[in-house]
Write a structure and sequence with these properties.
β4, α4 (94-102) and β5 form a beta-alpha-beta unit. The chain is an alpha/beta fold. The strands form two sheets. It has an eight-stranded mixed beta sheet, sandwiched between helices. A five-stranded parallel beta sheet has the order 2-1-3-4-5, with helices on both faces. The chain has 16 helices and 13 strands. 42% of the residues are buried. The structure holds adenosine-5'-triphosphate and magnesium ion.
Length: 397
C-alpha cells in the first residue's frame, strides 16, 4: 500500500471545512484532520502538530497581522516537504497574495471556490506529495512472475510473494514495512482478484477503450487495497483482447507503480504479446514458475531464451513448484538444471490443502495457513528476493 497523505485543515469556518471535506471525498489514502480554530488561535503544540502533516490548509485574511504572524510560526516549524495552501477572500489584491507567499504559502486559493476547483487543486498537490516521496531515484523493484505451463502455480506464487514482501514484523503488527503492489496482467484469465477477494476492476479495461495513460493519478484511483495492505490491480470482469492495451501504456503503468511502491509484482499472461517487452525490460527480476517434468523444463528454457534475447543482463529465477526441496538432487533434477544452466534454489512443496484453503478464503497463505510448509517456503522465497534486489539496501529483513 502506498503511504497515506495527511492533510490538516486549520479553520473555524464550517463552510471551509465542508468544502475541503468535499474536495477530498473519494480520494484514496488521504487522511484529513480538522483543527477547528483560526490560524492565529493555534497554540505552540498545535503548531508543532501541524508540522507533521503533508498538506496544511488554512483560511486566512492576509490583512490580519495575527494571522500573518501565526503563518510565520507555522513556517518556522514545517518540514521541508510540506505544502501550505491558503484559502482567502475572493478579491484579494496581488500585493496581499505576495505577502502570503513571502511567509511560506505555496498556493493561494480564492474562497468560496467554484465547482470542483478545490478538488482539482488538491489532486495537484497530492500528486506533488507522492512524487516528492518517490524522489531521489528510490524506485521500487519490479518482479514479473511467469509460468512454464498453465496451472503450474504462477498466480499462487505472485500473490503470496507479494504478500510476504510486505514483511510484517508480526501478524499483529498492522503496518507493513514495505509497500507492495500486485498487478494482474493475465488480462483474460487473471485470478489475482479471486485469490485476494478483490472485485474485478475495470481499470485495465479502461485502457483498452480510450487513449488513457495509466500515470500516477490513474494508478492512485485504480488500485484497491486489501485488509493486509497490498495494493491490487485485478483483471477486468469482461473478456478483453490481449492486444487491447499497448506497450506504451504498460510502460507508463509500471513507471507509475514503481514510483509509489517498494515492490511491484506482476502476474504475467502466458501469451507473449508485444507489450510483454516493456514488462521484461523494466523488470528487475523474472521468476519463472515450473515443475521438473521434461515439457515444463523445455518450456522454461524457451522462456528464458526469449527474455534474455533482448535483455542479456536480466535476473531470472526458476521456482520449482509442488516439489519439496530434495535432500539430494535426483538425476532428472540434475538434467533439468543442466538444460536451464542454473541451479534450482527455490522449491515450494506440494500442499493442496493449504493452497486450497487460501483460495477458498480469498486470502494469502500467511493469513490462513501461516504454519504450513508451503507458506514457510514462500517466506523464504520473499526473503531471498529482498536480498537479491537493490531495494534490499534500504529495507531490513
Ligand atoms: N504448491 C502448491 N501445492 C498445492 N497446490 C498448489 C500449489 N501451488 C498452486 N496450487 C494450486 O494449483 C492450482 C493452480 O494454481 P495457480 O492458479 O496459481 O496456477 P497458474 O499457473 O497461475 O494457473 P493459470 O494458468 O490458470 O494462470 C490452484 O488450485 C492452486 O491452489
Ligand atoms: Mg495464473
Amino acid at each position: 500500500m502506498a503511504k497515506v497523505t495527511s492533510v490538516m485543515l486549520i479553520s473555524d469556518d464550517q463552510g471551509v471545512e465542508n468544502a475541503v471535506t468535499l474536495a477530498l471525498a473519494g480520494k484514496r489514502r488521504v487522511k484529513l484532520t480538522a483543527e477547528n480554530r483560526s490560524v492565529s488561535g493555534l497554540n505552540g503544540a498545535a503548531v508543532r502538530m501541524a508540522a507533521e502533516h503533508d498538506i496544511i490548509v488554512f483560511a486566512t485574511d492576509p490583512g490580519n497581522k495575527d494571522d500573518m504572524n501565526a503563518i510565520r510560526a507555522l513556517n518556522a516549524e514545517r518540514s521541508e516537504t510540506s505544502i501550505f495552501l491558503a484559502l482567502t477572500d475572493r478579491d484579494i489584491t496581488l500585493a496581499r497574495a505576495r505577502s502570503l507567499s513571502d511567509v511560506g504559502v505555496d498556493e493561494v486559493l480564492p474562497f468560496p471556490v467554484t465547482g470542483d476547483e478545490l478538488g482539482r487543486q488538491m489532486d495537484k498537490w497530492l500528486q506533488k506529495v507522492a512524487s516528492t516521496r518517490s524522489g531521489g531515484g528510490k524506485e521500487g523493484a519490479v518482479i514479473a512472475v511467469s509460468q512454464a505451463r498453465g496451472g503450474i502455480g504462477a498466480t499462487t506464487v505472485a500473490v503470496n510473494l507479494a504478500d510476504q514482501l510486505l514483511i510484517r514484523k508480526s501478524r499483529f503488527r498492522k503496518e507493513p514495512a514495505n509497500s507492495v503492489a500486485i498487478v494482474d496482467l493475465d488480462l483474460q484469465f487473471g485470478a489475482v482478484g479471486d485469490f485476494l477477494d478483490v472485485e474485478p476492476q475495470e481499470g485495465l479495461m479502461q485502457l483498452a477503450t480510450g487513449d488513457v495513460m495509466p500515470d500516477q493519478m490513474w494508478v492512485e484511483q485504480s488500485l484497491a487495497d486489501t485488509p493486509t495492505g497490498l495494493s491490487v490491480l485485478s483483471a477486468p470482469a469482461d473478456f478483453m483482447p490481449l492486444d487491447a492495451i499497448n506497450a506504451k501504456q504498460v510502460e507508463t503503468l509500471i513507471t507509475a507503480l514503481r514510483q509509489t511502491h517498494d515492490f511491484v509484482v506482476i502476474d504475467m499472461p502466458r501469451a507473449l504479446v508485444d507489450w510483454i517487452e516493456p514488462v521484461v525490460s523494466m523488470a528487475d527480476e523474472i521468476q519463472v514458475v515450473t515443475d521438473t517434468t521434461v515439457p515444463s523444463i523445455r518450456s522454461t528454457r524457451r522462456l528464458i531464451d526469449f527474455y534474455l534475447a533482448d535483455n542479456p543482463g536480466l535476473q531470472i529465477e526458476v521456482i520449482v513448484n509442488r516439489e519439496k526441496k530434495p535432500y539430494m538432487l535426483a538425476s532428472h533434477h540434475k538434467e533439468a538444471a543442466r538444460v536451464l544452466e542454473r541451479k534450482f534454489e527455490h522449491w515450494l512443496p506440494d500442499d493442496p490443502k493449504a493452497a486450497r484453503n487460501a483460495v477458498d478464503f480469498g486470502k494469502p497463505l500467511s493469513e490462513v495457513s501461516g504454519r504450513s510448509e508451503l507458506s514457510k517456503a514462500l517466506t523464504q522465497l520473499a526473503k531471498a528476493t529482498v536480498r537479491r534486489l537493490p531495494i534490499a539496501e534500504r529495507q531490513s529483513v
